[in-house]
Amino acid sequence: MKSKPRIAAIAADSTKEPQPRAVFTKEFKLAAVARMKDDNQSVSALAVELGVRRTQLYKWAAALDQGGPESSFGARGRKPGQKESETAKLQRKIKALEQEVEILKKFDAYLKRGKR
């Protein structure tokens, strides 16, 4: 039977650092959508030229159609609901740590009482 070099290749690829996400300015997105609508060039060719995915151009165009030129094109960062859940998670962790401190204080007092 042949060995499986493909598995080794996949394992070697998994150790690579992840690529940072590309961040495009609002002006770039507006210009890209304008070229997409005005040019005689295909959307696929434009996407290759700009270095973005074709589907991303369509998403930007849809966001522009919905929100107009002042649209945020999908603002980055956490949504308010996620922020609240993060706060709740941190509050639970604080409560657990406070309980741990109380238990350790009681244990310390117990050990000191036993030495007398």
From TrEMBL:
Residues 66-89 are annotated as: Disordered. Pfam families: HTH_Tnp_1 (PF01527). Gene3D superfamilies: Homeodomain-like. One of its GO terms (biological process) is DNA transposition. One of its GO terms (molecular function) is transposase activity. This is Transposase.
